[in-house]
């Protein structure tokens, strides 16, 4: 799987292709041909049971694919739909919902994405978007911000509040909401990493009781589990982004000459490279441990996912900064690819909780 993903991403979906996609200004922020090839390779079905058309593999396998795509900054809805969306259905969906949506995720006709955050920071318990009971089911009112693949999505998994107040874990309910429902408006966001985000507004959006994903008022446990799996998958992509940044830096240290010798031979830069390599290996251990914890269904999944996201956020921040610094002036120009990695790093660091959020959460899981 790694060989397949590495070869395809390097040849068919490299940073060069990402640059072309960015320059094209496409609203969906990914290339349709790239997405079609990902579907054809079967990666959209990695986490989906065979009875629904998937291959029923594991999160570590999916992480391997995301790592290689992260190396090349390959843009697609794979993470948002085939990992986060599919996981929501696997965890909280009933048989009818799974039969309706999972085969379509596999063939790419459905792009399912999670709409959870409502402010500029990740605060999943602070959900305020209301879902009030109506004659036909529930009526949704409120806003979701920075929804991943928000413009391309065909269905949203919307975290709503059916009871209680923001900050309460009780009273959260997940709903499957068609993106073309009356009352939904989407605003495309232009971000530094040139990916697909949207602010989504729900104004008197009617959904049926059957659209509830899991229990009414009891959606927090499912949402928390979905987010942990999203964080672990994101950690794998961050690992790939960091690993490529390290390889680019190391190659530059070996080839850039100053005073008649490669700059990597200078002790200060050699020590810096060694420290970055050590950090990369520690980050890899954390990322893979989180994915394995999910696959083995151990009790410490939240702890391992927060450890991984915190470690990867810190390391990717440092590695992307060093990539720019060691390359000197050219690292800041758009003609060179280093800037893409810096921008993507800053976006990934805050998605589903930054390092500070997860350090606090990790400590809480240990009883501090």
Number of extended strands:
10
Question: What about the largest sheet?
Answer: 4 strands, mixed
Q: What is the beta-strand fraction?
A: 15-25%
Q: Fill in the CATH topology of the largest domain.
A: Butyryl-CoA Dehydrogenase, subunit A, domain 3
As laid out across the biggest beta sheet, the strand order is: 1-4-5-8
Q: What structural class do the secondary elements suggest?
A: alpha+beta
- Write down the domain tally: 3
Spell out the CATH superfamily of the largest domain.
Answer: Butyryl-CoA Dehydrogenase, subunit A, domain 3
* Overall outline: globular
Write the CATH architecture name of the largest domain.
Up-down Bundle
Tell me what you see in this structure.
The protein is α+β, with helices and mostly antiparallel strands and 368 residues long. It has three domains: 2-109, Acyl-CoA dehydrogenase/oxidase, N-terminal domain (Butyryl-Coa Dehydrogenase, subunit A, domain 1), CATH 1.10.540; 113-217, Beta Barrel (Butyryl-CoA Dehydrogenase, subunit A, domain 2), CATH 2.40.110.10; 221-365, Up-down Bundle (Butyryl-CoA Dehydrogenase, subunit A, domain 3), CATH 1.20.140.10. The chain is 51% helix and 15% strand. The strands form three sheets. Strands 1-4-5-8 form a four-stranded mixed beta sheet, with helices on one face. Strand 6 (184-189) and strand 7 form a beta hairpin. Helix 7 runs antiparallel to helix 8 (267-296). It is globular. The two termini are 40 Å apart.
């Amino acid at each position: 799987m790694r060989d397949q993903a590495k070869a395809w991403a390097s040849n068919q979906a490299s940073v060069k292709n990402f640059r072309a996609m960015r320059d094209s200004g496409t609203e969906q922020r990914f290339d349709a041909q790239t997405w079609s090839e990902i579907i054809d390779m079967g990666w959209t079905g990695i986490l989906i049971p065979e009875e629904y058309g998937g291959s029923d593999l594991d999160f570590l396998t999916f992480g391997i694919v995301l790592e290689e795509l992260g190396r090349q900054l390959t843009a697609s809805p794979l993470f948002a739909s085939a990992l986060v969306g599919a996981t929501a259905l696997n965890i909280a969906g009933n048989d009818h919902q799974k039969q309706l949506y999972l085969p379509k995720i596999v063939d790419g006709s459905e792009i399912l994405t999670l709409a959870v955050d409502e402010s500029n920071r990740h605060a999943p318990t602070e959900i305020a978007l209301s879902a009030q009971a109506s004659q036909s089911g529930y009526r949704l009112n409120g806003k979701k911000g920075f929804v991943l693949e928000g413009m391309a999505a065909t269905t949203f998994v919307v975290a709503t509040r059916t009871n209680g107040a923001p900050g309460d874990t009780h009273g959260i309910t997940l709903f499957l909401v068609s993106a073309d429902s009356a009352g939904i408006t989407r605003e495309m966001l232009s971000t530094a990493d040139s990916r697909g985000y949207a602010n989504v507004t729900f104004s008197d959006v009617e959904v049926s009781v059957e659209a509830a994903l899991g229990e009414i008022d009891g959606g927090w446990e499912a949402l928390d589990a979905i987010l942990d799996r999203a964080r672990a998958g994101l950690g794998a992509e961050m690992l790939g982004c960091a690993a490529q940044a390290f390889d680019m830096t190391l190659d530059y240290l070996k080839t850039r000459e100053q005073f008649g010798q490669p700059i990597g031979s200078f002790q200060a830069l050699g020590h810096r490279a060694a420290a970055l390599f050590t950090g990369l290996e520690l980050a890899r251990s954390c990322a893979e441990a989180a994915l394995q914890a999910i696959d083995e269904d151990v009790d410490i999944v939240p702890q391992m996912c927060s450890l991984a996201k915190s470690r990867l956020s810190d390391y990717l921040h440092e590695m992307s900064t060093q990539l720019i610094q060691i390359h000197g002036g050219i690292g800041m120009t758009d003609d060179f690819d280093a800037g893409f990695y810096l921008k993507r790093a800053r976006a990934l660091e805050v998605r589903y909780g930054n390092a500070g959020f997860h350090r606090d959460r990790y400590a809480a899981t240990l009883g501090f």
